[in-house]
Structures are given as structure tokens and as C-alpha cells.
Amino acid sequence: MRNRAKIDATIRNARAAVELDRPLDDLLWSFAPTPGRPRPATIGEVPATTPESTAMAKELKRRGFTFVGPTTCYALMQATGMVDDHLADCWLASC
């Protein structure tokens, strides 16, 4: 990584995580949407942000995190399995 702002943000975010009054995973999972959300039919229906990811970004910023926005938070939710955006006809959707 060569972007100085991102390097500084990584350090700042690590400090913010250490200073949390609860475990980071508990904080993040508290923003998970309720199960039962319908699967998207097309890639165009997969959102870039949701109200939950917007709330997560706002709370993380309030707690001192930087370089976290709704789109980044939604990508985190996808990567960690908090949301499942497999298309309805995806073979994984039946698992």
C-alpha cells in the first residue's frame, strides 16, 4: 500500500478497535440484516449499500474509524457472510 492516508487510517482504525467497549465482531454483527431477505434475481438488483451498512459506517465513524463508508461496510457484510447476495438462480442458493 502506497497511499499514506490509507496507512494512517489503518493505524487509526487499529487504535479505535482496541479502545472499543465491546468486541469488534459483536459491534459489526449487530448491524446484520434480519434473515429472510429475498435473493436478487439479477446482478443489477444487488445493492451497493443498505440502511444497515449506512448505520454501520456511521457508528464506526462515531467511534473513531476512518475510510469506512456505506459501500465499504456493505462489502464487508458480503465478504463475512452477514448478507448473501447470490442470485436466485445460483446453484449455491439451494445450499
TrEMBL record:
<dbReference type="InterPro" id="IPR052891">
    <property type="entry name" value="DNA-3mA_glycosylase"/>
</dbReference>
<dbReference type="InterPro" id="IPR005019">
    <property type="entry name" value="Adenine_glyco"/>
</dbReference>
<dbReference type="InterPro" id="IPR011257">
    <property type="entry name" value="DNA_glycosylase"/>
</dbReference>
<dbReference type="Pfam" id="PF03352">
    <property type="entry name" value="Adenine_glyco"/>
</dbReference>
<protein>
    <recommendedName>
        <fullName>DNA-3-methyladenine glycosylase I</fullName>
    </recommendedName>
</protein>
